[in-house]
Design brief:
There is one protein chain. The chain is α+β, with helices and mostly antiparallel strands. The protein contains 4 helices and 4 strands. Strand 2 and strand 3 form a beta hairpin. GO terms for molecular function: monooxygenase activity.
């Protein structure tokens, strides 16, 4: 079974192209984290919110990543970090073309 991690938080930026350039190294490092299958980056500049949706191999990997990432964000001065972990219903998700194996 795969596990989805949803994370979001308030931040002042950067957003858009500036975010893409500024966080490219971070994005590459996420690929090296245990159990990460993929991440979709999320942002809403008007609401000053950012975050991501991740797919993990195991719940334990998702929990460890959430703990590490929350600590990293806190070290950047970001507070009110919201993280949720969900089991993925593969059968139904595949009907809707979800990018899972």
């Amino acid at each position: 079974m795969k596990y989805l991690l949803q994370v979001d938080f308030i931040m002042d930026g950067p957003f858009g192209e500036e975010m893409s350039k500024g966080f490219a190294d971070l994005a590459n490092s996420i690929n090296e984290e245990p159990g990460v299958i993929w991440k979709i980056w999320t942002e809403d500049a008007a609401a000053k919110e950012a975050g991501g949706i991740y797919l993990f191999e195991t719940k334990e990997d998702a929990e460890k990543y959430l703990d590490m990432h929350s600590a990293r964000l806190t070290s950047f001065g970001i507070t009110n970090i919201r993280g949720k972990i969900f089991e993925v219903n593969k059968a139904l998700s595949l009907i809707n073309n979800a990018p899972i194996k």
